[in-house]
Amino acid sequence: MDEIAEAAEKLKLLGDKTRLTILCLLKDREWCVCELVDVLSISQPGISQHMRKLKSHGIVNESRRGQWVYYSLRIQDKPYIQAVLDYMPGTAGTLSLLNKKEPGQCCN
Amino acid sequence: MDEIAEAAEKLKLLGDKTRLTILCLLKDREWCVCELVDVLSISQPGISQHMRKLKSHGIVNESRRGQWVYYSLRIQDKPYIQAVLDYMPGTAGTLSLLNKKEPGQCCN
DNA sequence: ATATCATATAATTATATGCTTATATACTTT
DNA sequence: AAAGTATATAAGCATATAATTATATGATAT
Predict the structure, then answer these.
(1) Looking at residues A36-54, what average pLDDT do you find?
(2) Residue A7 approaches strand D within 7 Å at CB
(3) In a domain, A99, yes or no
(4) Is the pLDDT of residue A89 over 80?
(5) Which of A56, B3, B85, B91 has the most crowded Cβ, counting Cβ within 10 A?
(6) Which domain holds residue B67?
(7) Dist. CA B73–CA B90, nearest whole Å
(8) What is the CATH number of the domain that holds A67?
C-alpha cells in the first residue's frame, strides 16, 4: 500500500467523532475502558471496538493491569497524527465539550 | 457543532484515498476536472462528487474558466489540514505513485 | 440554432461503518 | 470453586459511503 493510501486509512480512523474524542482524552494521560464508558455516550462494547481499531493501526498502546485495560497514545512515529492532535483540545477541554467531569474511581 | 466534531468531519474527508490523492495533486497547482479524470482511475462523475464534497467543506476553491472548472486548495485557515498535507507528497510524487505523467492538454 | 465538449446531478448498487444486544473471556475476591 | 467485575467478541441492523451508469446543465464553436 502506498504512502497516500496508508495515510488515508489512518485519517479515516481520526475522522470519527467518537474516536477523535477518545484520542483527545488520551492526549494528557492514559485512560481505561471503564473511564471512557463513563464519559462517552456509547456502550462498553462500542468503546472496545473503537479501541481495537485504534490499536490494530498502532495508534494506541494497550496495557492490562489487574482487571483493567489502559490505553495510551502511540503517535511518536506518526507526525501528521501528532500535528492534528496538537490542534485539538486535551483532556480537560474535551471533558468540558462533553459536559462531563473527570470520571470517578471506577478502576483502582 | 463542537470543535472535535467539526475536525472529525473534515478528517473524514481526508480519509478517503481518492480524495487525499486529489488534495496531494492540488498542493502545487490548480487542476481541472478533466486532468483529474485523466490521472485517477475513477469516472468523471466520481471526481465531480468528490470535488463537491471538498468544496462544500471549504477545502477547495472552484473557478470556472471557459468550459473548464479548476480547483485549488483553500486551506490557509485550516492549520491541521495544512499540517497533514505538509507530510504528503506533492504533485510530482503523487503522479509517480499513480504511475502517471502530467496529463496532456485536455483543457486550454 | 445545433453540435460538441466539459462538468454536474440523479438514481442505483454494493460495501463499509458504527451502533446495539447478547454472550464469551479474563482477572479478582471470597 | 463460585461469584463478581471488567473487557472483548459475535451477530444483527440501520445508515453512510463510494462507485457506476444515465441524464441534465453549461459553455463554445460552427
Answers:
(1) 97
(2) no
(3) no
(4) yes
(5) B85
(6) 3-97
(7) 12
(8) 1.10.10.10
